[in-house]
Design goal:
Number of helices: 7
Distance between the termini: 31 Å
Radius of gyration: 23 Å
Structural class: mainly alpha
Helix content: over 70%
Shape: elongated
Mean pLDDT: 78
Low-confidence stretches: 1-6
Number of strands: 0
Length: 145
């Protein structure tokens, strides 16, 4: 069965992972389910190894190109900046405009509402949702790595 799944070096680990899950939660399964579950576990392991290799490479690059306190700090500064950029890029155009005016230009919610023709409470609520969305997205991005 493993030969049909993939040629990844970790396919035995993937099979073991799937079988351990089945032992914890026994239920009848078909061979097709096992093949799919092992394939998915193999892909997860491959992604984890790829991610680790990418992080090691980025850490080495950061060590050579940044003048911060340490390469570790430089790597994490870059990782955080990428996560923030991703979060802001995920916002709709109006939310990006509101965010920029509030946090980059220092405008109040009243000024933003007046300039954009919106209600003050609408802008205040959107700012709270934008802040929450950005925190959640940045946290998720950093947690994935």
């Amino acid at each position: 069965m493993l030969e049909r799944v993939s040629r990844l070096a970790d396919r035995e680990d993937a099979a073991q992972t799937v079988l351990e899950r089945l032992l914890r939660n026994p239920r009848p399964v078909s061979e097709g389910y096992l093949v799919s579950a092992i394939r998915n576990a193999s892909i997860d392991l491959w992604r984890a190894h790829s991610s680790r290799a990418r992080h090691e490479h980025e850490y080495a690059v950061a060590a050579q190109t940044h003048d911060t306190a340490s390469p570790y700090d430089a790597y994490h500064e870059r990782e955080l900046a990428d996560a923030v950029e991703f979060a802001l890029g995920s916002l709709c155009e109006l939310d990006q405009e509101i965010f920029e005016r509030s946090y980059a230009q220092g405008q109040s919610a009243v000024e933003i509402a007046r300039d954009l023709g919106l209600n003050h409470s609408t802008v205040s609520k959107r700012l709270a949702k934008i802040k929450s969305f950005c925190w959640d997205t940045v946290y998720d991005q950093l947690d994935e790595d």
